[in-house]
Amino acid sequence: MMPDPLQLPVKASTVIRNIGQLVTIAQQPVTGASGPLQVIADAAIAVHEGVIVWIGHDSEHLFQQDSDTPADGITIVDAQGVVVTPGLVDSHTHLVFAGDRAEEFHLRRAGVSYGELLLQGRGILSTVNATRSADAETLAELAIARLNTMRHYGTTTVEVKTGYGLDKITEETCLRIINDLNAFEASPTYQHSRVRVVPTFLGAHVIPPEYRARREAYVDLVVEEMLPSFVGLARFCDVFCEREAFSLEECRRILTRAKELGYALKIHADQLSPSGGARLAAELSATSADHLDFASDADLEAMREAGVVATLLPGCSYTLRSPYPPARRFIDRGLHVALATDFNPGTSYCENMQMMLGLAMSSMGMSLEEALQAATINGARALALQDSIGSIEVGKRCELAFWSIRDYHEIGYHFGINLIQSVLVS
Ligand SMILES: [Zn+2]
């Protein structure tokens, strides 16, 4: 039998060589790696059928012989000495909508609060009107363009919520568009850069205007009609638990039914006031509770015990000019903290996870290491995907971000520009 010219210990279809710094964020110690992020200098990765099968030093003898003439069928990728991290995971977005809310952004600068805008029928409701009026083709085109922007900024997995339809037909249209994004990404165009899309049903975003005088009927519609019909179209069910949106009891009813039907759960919790959402997330073993600006210490304790991921969304604080979520409160209590964009037209119109990393370090008291974990492995935890993505480890999917830098300490330091060169999904 002819020896494998690369002398790889395992079968591989792709080998990525000459990685200046491989920031693995591995959850288990890796040979030759150091620091809290398990960084390997001068590294290489071998991949087979999309799964990482070997990680090590590029200079190891495995790659010494005939490295310029790999065996047939093995693709060699030269990373040219740059930094490679896991692809970024954006675990909270509202990607499918029409219209924009630039006017509202500037009204807020003139002193009008987000709560007042919601009560005036602006805010989310203006996006609901624009989304209901748009045809499916337009909504899909807009979503694809936004997904492309995310890819260029290093995101390889993104959660996408509905919540701007708020009637059965438009919510279903939006869910189908979200599911179709995965099919679109599987096309040959994106063979090596496809973004994974995780669909979430957020029918309980706000009470739609036609149900304002009979809100219970809308909750009935969500519980009795939408949730059962959308099984299989959405992985998660989310609710906006807030004074201006849905009460604690309404949220409990919706999420309890969703759980019975097999959805995993998420909650927009305690964003504008103490709503009880964080406690409900713990009670129902939700996968994540998101925002949490007003969650109490006891709420955080309950979340930690129930294993609920705390997803923090600094883009909202930036846009609303509200205090940034105090990440240290969460991290020091032992909670897993995820960072996400909350990409939406009203309170965080930003597709860029690097911006969230920067804000986490500049304004939330997070270290670079904590912020990178929050944007990768903990984002994966917030989507219950930590066993397959979010770190670079043998057995995980090969979803990588190539940064145009030589030292990962430039992340957050060199700010306001795109440091991502490309993503590689093998
Ligand atoms: Zn949100």
Protein topology:
Layout: E1 14-23, E2 39-48, E3 51-57, E4 75-78, E5 83-86, E6 88-90, H1 102-109, H2 114-119, H3 124-133, H4 136-152, E7 155-161, H5 168-185, E8 196-204, H6 215-229, E9 236-241, H7 248-260, E10 264-269, H8 277-283, E11 288-291, H9 297-306, E12 309-312, H10 314-320, H11 327-331, E13 337-339, H12 353-363, H13 368-374, H14 377-381, E14 399-403, E15 420-425
Parallel strand pairs: 1-4, 1-5, 6-7, 7-8, 8-9, 9-10, 10-11, 11-12, 12-13
Antiparallel strand pairs: 1-2, 2-3, 5-14, 14-15
Helix pairs in contact: 4-5, 6-7, 8-9
Bound molecules: zinc ion (ZN).
Give an account of the 3D structure.
The chain is of the alpha/beta class and 426 residues long. The chain is 33% helix and 21% strand. The protein has 14 helices and 15 strands. The strands form 2 sheets. It has an 8-stranded parallel sheet with strand order 6-7-8-9-10-11-12-13. The longest helix is centred in the middle third of the chain and has 18 residues, at 168-185. The two termini are 28 Å apart. Bound molecules: zinc ion (ZN). The site of zinc ion has 4 residues, from loops.
Query: How is the main sheet built?
Result: 8 strands, parallel
Bound molecules: zinc ion
Helix content: 25-40%
Query: Which of globular, elongated, flat, extended, rod-shaped describes the shape?
Result: globular
The average pLDDT score comes to 93
| Low-pLDDT residue intervals, each spanning 5 or more residues | 1-5
The rounded distance between the terminal residues' Cα atoms is 28 Å
